[in-house]
Specification:
The complex is a heterodimer of chains A (471) and B (231).
Chain A lengths: L7 H9 L2 H23 L4 H17 L1 H14 L3 E5 L2 H14 L4 E4 L3 H5 L2 H7 L3 E4 L2 H9 L15 H12 L7 H18 L2 E4 L3 E3 L4 E6 L3 H7 L3 E7 L3 E2 L5 H12 L7 E5 L13 E7 L3 H4 L15 H5 L1 H6 L10 H11 L18 H5 L6 H14 L5 H15 L1 H18 L4 E2 L15 E2 L6 H12 L1
Parallel strand pairs in A: 1-10, 2-3, 2-4, 4-7, 5-8, 7-10
Antiparallel strand pairs in A: 5-6, 6-9, 11-12
Chain B lengths: L1 H24 L17 H11 L3 E5 L2 H12 L6 E4 L2 H4 L4 H7 L3 E2 L9 H8 L4 E4 L3 E3 L4 E5 L14 E7 L3 E2 L2 H12 L9 E5 L4 E2 L7 E2 L6 E7 L2
Parallel strand pairs in B: 1-12, 2-3, 2-4, 4-7, 5-8, 7-12
Antiparallel strand pairs in B: 5-6, 6-9, 10-11
Classes of the chains: A alpha/beta (471), B alpha/beta (231).
Chain lengths: 471, 231
């Protein structure tokens, strides 16, 4: 298990003071936002396409039991194996045992958030297996001993100098700040690992029930190598990531690539249906599909079922003003950003601070605005906040403040007096309409942002004056 | 058994969620549009334009003779003494075998899955060029649709740093929706009967994982050349 030495607020504080992280986040999210807007804007009818994407995902979820059975039956009919894993432990055990039984020593892995969710690498390494992440970003963070900070771009928090240092240390690369040189170095180092590995592990973007196929989307080619070169291919799929028909991909792939990176299609889209057939020169000789539940079947029946429509494009991360400022690591969870704040308390209920993540939102709605399947993320964040309060997860001071506010709101004289006091006080503290530092305990709020100075009169005073003038 | 446990948990959950999910599903049609961009008059020109934006190259050629000439130019100066290719009859370009012979390009044998896998694949590694045909090509995204299978190895569009693909004008479709519909019409439920893999390739291998800076060829071919043939 990854443990975070710092508490949520401390991690946020660290992130906000990390100059190179701020530069990297600004550069990455701006680029992602611009690319996505361009790609979505160029569509003949983006709104309809997104409506279709939502309808297809909802339709698949409405028959998830039936479609999963169909997918599994079709995979098995083509000679593949299916593991139904109720939780991370069952998935880890299945894959570890398989690797042991087949005498596997080296495993190459392409990007899979589901495998991060169940801490698969740690389990495999504990079993004495060598696991090599092969997506460049994932490889970099594996070398540096970190976790991904973005669903699509795991290493966006790092500078080229940091990457160069890592490659010099681990791969013997002469120091350089030339990114193509770093890329070539990684290509050479990883190519040998692909050819040595006995097992490849991949994630799954979509399972196609009718075809018994998994769809894997990527830009680098590492997923193609992971699924074509080693003798065994294990694909890990969250059970909700399913569509019924091949045709559904004609909508889903279009919105996925555009929302994620602004591409029309990702460079490589692989559809893999079972192991290599007779006469095929490449492709895995053994294919295993791990269907991971890990809480999803429960979520489907509750108020957060809509979160299962998510196709993990990462657009909500880039659009979120909170993510833009604190980055992925501050969340301390596998899934960061707005959708992560929803998924984490649901998928990782044991994470002690998961309940705080829904607070890390201004509820501005930018996430829902860009979501290709129009998930009402702000609504769910509000409901999760209410859940946390009902479960008694809040700071005593917060309760005291809200209680005082409630008393004041019920008593007009008290409310007016409070307002007057605040305006008087703010006149002493404010400069040019802004308050740089509020007195304790409110100083925490102004630590990283200014507070707008209240106006010279209250709304009630202004209204009364206005009415008097009219009369 | 976990299978039954998961399915029964799903059914319990769907008892309360199925209705609203089905209502959401009914709010929009599911069939994909044949294409999603404004249609272009000339698909070949659109394909070439889009591929150029991705740092790939398309060559519009009139016939097989011109195609062979173009491939000859590409092979020259690329140290292409070894290549990995689809069975040449599956590429179906007259004169290709003679060209490769004349240029001294040895085709490495991808052989068949089975024993001695690691060494067999290691022997393919020195190849400088990949040669393949395609099933279809999508104009609005400059995507190649490769139906891999016997005689059409996946590695022949993946392993070496240069991928040359031969496409006929008749294989061009406008969009992804049209491509999927064509595949369904052609193969029905048997799309994956004799093959385990279908791959869409849209431009050269790329990454922007370091400082969001584009870098080509991290794992797949950094160079992609599409010979688009009229005849």
């Amino acid at each position: 298990m990854t443990t975070h030495p710092l508490h949520f607020h401390e991690r946020v504080d660290t992130a906000l003071h990390d100059g190179s992280l701020q530069t990297a986040l600004g550069r990455a999210t701006t680029r992602f936002i611009t690319n996505r807007a361009g790609a979505i804007g160029a569509l003949s009818d983006a709104d309809t396409l997104r409506d279709q994407a939502r309808a297809i995902r909802a339709g698949a979820l409405s028959r998830l039991d039936e479609l999963l059975e169909r997918l599994a039956a079709n995979v098995e009919a083509r000679g593949g194996h299916v593991c139904w894993a109720a939780d991370g432990e069952e998935a880890r055990q299945y894959i570890t045992r398989l690797a042991r039984e087949r005498g596997v020593q080296t495993i190459v892995k392409s990007k899979s958030m589901a495998s991060e969710e169940i801490y698969l690498n740690e389990a495999l390494e504990q079993a004495g297996l060598e696991v090599v992440e092969t997506d460049l970003g994932e490889y970099i963070i594996q070398l540096s001993g970190e976790t991904p900070s973005h669903i699509i771009a795991p290493a966006i928090h790092m500078t080229r100098e940091q990457v160069s240092g890592l490659f010099s240390k681990h791969l013997g690369m002469p120091a350089t700040d030339d990114i193509p040189t770093m890329t070539r170095t990684a290509r050479q180092a990883l190519r040998q690992r692909f050819l040595q590995a006995e097992m490849g592990i991949s994630g799954v973007n979509f399972g196609v029930a009718d075809e018994g196929a998994v769809v894997i989307v990527e830009n680098e080619g590492n997923a193609r190598l992971c699924t074509s070169v080693p003798r065994i291919h294990v694909a890990i799929m969250g059970i909700e990531r399913i569509v019924e028909r091949l045709d559904d991909l004609g909508v889903m792939l279009q919105v996925l690539a555009r929302s994620a990176t602004g591409q029309k299609l990702s460079v490589y889209t692989s559809l893999i249906s079972g192991p290599a057939r007779a006469g095929e020169a490449d492709g895995a000789e053994e294919f295993h599909l791990v269907l991971l539940d890990n809480g999803r079947s429960q979520i489907l029946g509750g108020p957060y079922a809509e979160s299962l429509l998510c196709i993990r494009c990462g657009a909500c991360l880039n659009a979120c003003p909170v993510y833009q400022n604190i980055g992925g690591h501050a969340y301390g969870s596998v899934y960061p950003g707005p959708i992560g704040a929803v998924l984490t308390p649901l998928l990782q209920p044991d994470l002690p601070e998961g309940y705080m993540l829904p607070q890390a939102s201004s509820l501005c709605g930018a996430c829902q605005e860009v979501c290709p399947v129009r998930i009402a993320i702000p609504d769910m964040l509000l409901r999760l906040r209410a859940d946390a309060v009902r479960a008694g997860k809040y700071h005593p001071a917060e309760k005291a403040a809200i209680q005082s506010y409630a008393i004041a709101m019920k008593n007009p004289a008290l409310y007016r007096a409070g307002g007057t006091l605040a305006r008087l006080g703010s006149r002493l503290l404010g400069r040019k309409g802004r308050i740089r530092r509020l007195p304790p305990p409110l100083h925490l709020w102004t630590k990283h942002r200014d507070f707008p100075q209240p106006g010279p009169q209250s709304f009630t005073e202004w209204w009364e004056a206005r009415e008097r003038r009219k009369a | 058994m976990s299978r039954d446990r998961i399915l029964s948990s799903l059914r319990t959950s769907l008892a309360s969620s199925r209705q609203w999910l089905a209502a959401e599903a009914a709010r929009a049609p599911h069939d994909p549009p044949p294409h999603v961009m404004p249609p272009a008059a000339d698909l070949a020109a659109q394909f070439a334009d889009e591929l150029r934006k991705l740092e790939g190259r398309a060559y519009l050629v009139a016939d097989a003779e011109e195609a062979i000439e173009t491939i000859g130019d590409l092979l020259a100066g690329r140290d292409a003494s070894q290549a990995i290719a689809w069975d040449l009859e599956q590429i179906g370009l007259p004169g290709l075998e003679a060209l490769l012979e004349a240029r001294g390009v040895a085709l490495l044998d991808p052989a068949e899955n089975g024993v001695d896998r690691k060494h067999r694949l290691q022997r393919l590694e020195p190849a400088r060029v990949c040669l393949s045909g395609v099933e279809l090509a999508i104009a609005e995204s400059a995507s190649l649709v490769l139906r891999h299978g016997p005689g059409r190895p996946r590695l022949a569009s993946l392993l070496a740093p240069v991928h040359i693909a031969v496409v006929r004008r008749g294989q061009l479709v406008r969009g992804l929706g049209e491509a999927l519909a064509t595949l369904r019409a052609r193969y029905g439920a048997a799309l994956f009967a004799e093959t385990s893999n279908l791959t869409l390739i849209t431009g050269p291998s790329r990454t922007a994982d370091i400082e969001m800076t584009l870098s080509l060829g991290i794992h797949g071919p950094p160079e992609i050349h599409v010979i688009l043939m009229d005849a």
